[in-house]
Design a protein that fits this description.
Blueprint (H helix, E strand, L loop, with lengths): L1 E6 L2 E5 L4 E4 L9 E4 L1 E6 L2 E3 L2 H4 L2 E12 L3 E7 L4 E7 L2 E12 L5
Antiparallel strand pairs: 1-2, 1-5, 3-10, 4-7, 5-6, 7-10, 8-9
Length: 107
C-alpha cells in the first residue's frame, strides 16, 4: 500500500518501513507523530475522497532532529572590493513510518 501524506507544505509518498526527512513538526525524538493522508494507492484502487481518507492514519516515529547540508552563496562585484557570503542550513526531522492504519468502521 502506497500512501501520500502532507508534511508542512509538501506531499510525500511513503510505505511502511520508509525513512523520510521533513521540515520539523511538533514532536520530540522517540515520540510518535500522526500525518494527515492525502491519497491512498491500494493495489489497483486509488482513494482520494475525504470521507474515506478519514479512516486512514500514518503513524511515524521521530528518529532524530538534525541539520541539513550547508548551502553557501557568494556575491562579488569586480573592482569595488564588494564581497558578501551567505550560508543557510535547514533544520530537518527524520521520520520512520511505523504503521499505516485503517479503521474498518468507516468503509
Amino acid at each position: 500500500m502506497i500512501v501520500f501524506v502532507r508534511c508542512g507544505n509538501t506531499q510525500l509518498k511513503v510505505q511502511e518501513g520508509d525513512t523520510v526527512s521533513v521540515f520539523p513538526l511538533k514532536g520530540v525524538e522517540g515520540n510518535q507523530v500522526t500525518l494527515p493522508v492525502v491519497a491512498v494507492l491500494d493495489g489497483e484502487n486509488l482513494v482520494v475522497e475525504e470521507k474515506k481518507l478519514a479512516s486512514y492514519r500514518v503513524r511515524c516515529e521521530v528518529l532524530e532532529i538534525t541539520k541539513g547540508e550547508k548551502i553557501y552563496s557568494f556575491r562579488k562585484k569586480p573592482k569595488t572590493g564588494y564581497k558578501r557570503g551567505v550560508g543557510h542550513r535547514d533544520r530537518l526531522m527524520k521520520l520512520k513510518v511505523i504503521r499505516i492504519e485503517r479503521s474498518e468502521t468507516d468503509s
